[in-house]
User: Fold this.
Amino acid sequence: MIVPLTQSPFGRPRASSDAPGNLWLRRLGADQAAAALDVWEILETRSSDASLASSRLWTSTWLRHYGDLVPHEFLIGEVEGTPHGACLLTRGVGASIGPFPLRSIHLGTAGEPETDSVCVEYNRLLADDAHRADFLRAIVARVQQESDWDQLQFDGFSQSDADEWLPIIPGASIRRRPSPYFDLRRTRDEGADVLSHLGRSTRSNLRRRLRDYGDLTLDWAESLNSAEEIFSELVTLHQARWTAAGRPGAFASSRFHDFQLELMTRGLLDRRIVMFRVRQGRQTIGCLFLLVDRNRLLDYISGFASFDAYASPGLVVHALCMQEALRRGYDAYDFLVGEHQHKRNLSNAENELLWVVWRRDRLKFRLAGLVREAKQIVRWARRRDAAS
Assistant:
């Protein structure tokens, strides 16, 4: 049985065969975002474990700030007219492999230019558990009908979520990255505090730093005015740190700035966003912008005072926020991906996030591989000549 579909921003008009089992795919174009987001709300209301990255809040905010930049469409999985899954498909913008343009399709809010990216992590397909695998099979089958793409990407999915669908895309390349976290629930169950569950050297360092800092004021934003004040300081501190290092900083992108500001504004009052600040007198030591994902805090964006002015500001601010999160009943404090020493020092457990790429057999990939090999040979020859 064939389901007719209307013109897609992904290319020519096309039809999609019915999905596995009794699940059907319905396509909604970019101009039907409101209808698609209504489905998001229905599915979120039914789900007990929907991730923030696949939520209506996150997706609708992303669409407002990136929808005009990144081509996209929506796929809805239905059984007898009832929605059981929803997916945003996007076309990557500005990507390349070597000298060749790269045409990518992404599941979820990804595909922005690197300088504007929201860097989605703990991405997830929004679908009922019983239909998630069939829904993904249908999406992959649908995308395979198109000819004008080079690779399909699954950005920032957890290993536990990916286990059920990786067999659907055999031969895909997988980049695994650790996401260290602190287990707040276990600490609470044991009647302990944060410091007691850290390594000996980290405990000693934190106690020394906290004595040196003296009296500190902790602000966990409970009002929008307070959150906006912390956000403004965070942006200033973040940009100062990165520009001092000769880098533009994330907030150099107006799209990124405006996305985060709206996300914070909309997400604060329903407790999907946490804004936290530590001050010594009138001086701010650091600010944190944290996402709330299934009762876990995700360390998303931060801004800290200069290391020249304060010792270990990131370590101190995170440790104080972790202790407050423990008191408030959160299950985990996740530092997300990235190689920073404080993440290792302050974590006692680890998840794994995956970036999965499923490539078609394209000449550009083979040529890019030859270019890389040629560069490696040149570098090897130069090192040999320098050593001789």
Remarks:
- Residues 363-387 form the longest helix (25 residues).
